[in-house]
Design goal:
Elements lengths: L4 H9 L8 E2 L5 E2 L15 H6 L1 H21 L7 H35 L14 H11 L4
Antiparallel strand pairs: 1-2
Length: 144
């Protein structure tokens, strides 16, 4: 059976690596780009961002709004670098909270989204309960 990108990086780098990758020009995952959770600037899969969306919104809404407002005011990418860094820094903190408190539940949810083509309904009751388990953990640990 085919392995998803998340599984291929897990196999090569282990659980400590963020399950992320870039694609080479030939469409093959470039696993040399995987980085650890502890790095300040992290790359994550779309499934990871989808899975963490509520927490990212809760904790990073102010930074995201400042970045988007900056982009509206000036389309020059250099103009909004500091606001972009603030969004990244906030996002990394969110992923660190997730790792420290609900890593296995989050990984299961993100994996479900990854395999389910980012379809939330596949990971919710009654089809799957990975979303419910992740957010129950996040509430229990007071991060949501």
């Amino acid at each position: 059976s085919e392995m998803c990108i998340r599984d291929s990086i897990n196999a090569e780098y282990g659980e400590k690596a963020i399950k992320s990758t870039l694609m080479t020009s030939s469409g093959i995952p470039d696993t040399t780009q995987a980085i650890e959770w502890e790095k300040e600037e992290a790359k994550v899969l779309g499934a990871d961002l989808y899975a963490a969306n509520r927490l990212l919104q809760k904790y990073c809404n102010r930074q995201n709004d400042a970045f988007l407002l900056c982009k509206v005011e000036d389309e020059d990418p250099e103009h909004c670098i500091e606001q972009g860094r603030a969004v990244t820094k906030c996002g990394v903190k969110v992923f660190q909270k997730i790792r420290q408190n609900c890593e296995s539940e989050f990984n299961a949810y993100a994996h479900c989204l990854d395999w389910g083509n980012l379809d939330f309904s596949r990971c919710r009751y009654p089809n799957g309960e990975t979303e419910d388990r992740f957010y129950a953990c996040a509430k229990e640990k007071n991060i949501y």
